[in-house]
Design brief:
By secondary structure, this protein is an alpha+beta fold. The chain is built from three helices and four strands. It has a two-stranded antiparallel ribbon with strand order 1-2. It starts with a helix and ends with a helix. The structure holds zinc ion (ZN).
């Protein structure tokens, strides 16, 4: 039902932590605690905490919340992108309308002169 569950903290005692640079969720063997590893996502060196303290107290709830927060963030980014795109489009249409209005005035003036 929930594929995230098994990744939180398995029997091998893996540590779940976040990259200090890109905040990606990373899982390493507990033996790597206190070491500096290169992030699998951004490649920068990041410190592996001694214990995944917060994950240990309420692992499932925490990952769920983190996952929901991440979903929320990516959705917000998506919507913000749409709004930005449409704002630009709206601006273009306004400029186009303005140009057409100016052209209309010109044409009406020419019409007045010729009649
Ligand atoms: Zn990273």
């Amino acid at each position: 039902m929930n594929p995230v569950r098994s990744q939180t903290r398995n029997e091998a005692g893996d540590l779940l932590f976040k990259c200090q640079h890109c905040a990606s969720s990373l899982v390493v063997n507990a033996a790597a605690a206190g070491m500096t590893l290169n992030c699998q996502r951004c490649g920068k060196p990041t410190l592996v905490p001694m214990v995944s303290a917060s994950a240990a107290s309420a692992p499932q709830e925490l990952t769920d919340l983190q996952r929901k927060l991440k979903e929320n963030e990516s959705q917000r980014t998506e919507i913000t992108g749409y709004i930005n795109q449409l704002s630009i489009q709206l601006h273009r249409w306004k400029l186009r309308l303005q140009t057409l209005n100016e052209r209309k005035t010109e044409l009406e003036e020419e019409l007045r002169k010729t009649t």
